[in-house]
# Entry
Amino acid sequence: YDPALAAAVGAFQRRHGLAADGIIGPQTLAALNVPADQRALQVTLNLERWRWLPREPGPRHLLVNIPDFSLALVEDGVPTLTMRAVVGRPDRPTPVVSGLMQWLVINPGWSVPQKLAREDLLPKLAADPGYLLDRGFRVYADWRPGAAEIDPAGVDWRAIDPLHLGFKFFQAPGPRNPLGRVKFMFPNDFSVYIHDTDQRGVFAQDQRCFSAGCVRIEAPDDLLQRLALRGNAPAEAAVQTAMAGNKSVGLALAEALPVHLVYLTAWVETDGTLQFRRDCYGYDGDLAAALVAGARAPVAPHRPLPPAVIARAAAPAPTAAHQVRTGPVSMWTKREAE
# Structure
């Protein structure tokens, strides 16, 4: 195991998204043992995924590759800014979606989505009633504008049925806010966005499936500089003033920026290097089975939509900028239930 072989192992590790330490540990050994025909299939599957993407991604766009846990600002086909990212857990995957980034928020507050409130926050409150106070949360009776603020100490959280949790939980901007100091907005049907984080240590890990679906990024200040400031002195002054305080400030981008969240477990770098990544959500197997079965959308038999879906699509879109209770689920300024 001489230096040349160690260097070759390090190069292999970099091509597979592993820590390039030159040591053949369990993950490296597993990657080395993947047969060539399986790698060829992996390339085929990702060629199919490329077919789904917009033909013109935009001369300047953001590309988040979920299995690579990375974000790149691409300009004229060349990544000019790259950074590590945290994506959704397998049970709450980051969606594959494209959108347009039009604005960002400095010092964002966080209104906890009802699903997270039911599944994550409520168990914490049952175990520790002081959790909300310790982290600067405010609690409101419901999601309607002007709803009364309530004292969380007066609520028996253990007695609440998660399916009927109607409170709104809001965490003000600050050092313990999970959105960090800036979030980048690109409206989409999944209500996900790109944001800073108060948990910086997670970026040191190789496998970064930790979020509830949104994309956390390692260097939000660098992205902010490239997208919104770019030498604009008035904008820089406004951002510095906003950063110095704890008030949420929205900042529109001068030009809308395409954003693509993609799922690529194999691709070729600009220098011709073939890259592979672990199938963190298990999508490769599903896609391989669908291709073998010939399950392509253009030839799939038409199925009539369920009456409930037709009725929902025909209904006028909600106009109120707040969450509307609909029994055990809710809708957040969109027709589809969360």
In short: The two ends are 53 Å apart (CA to CA).
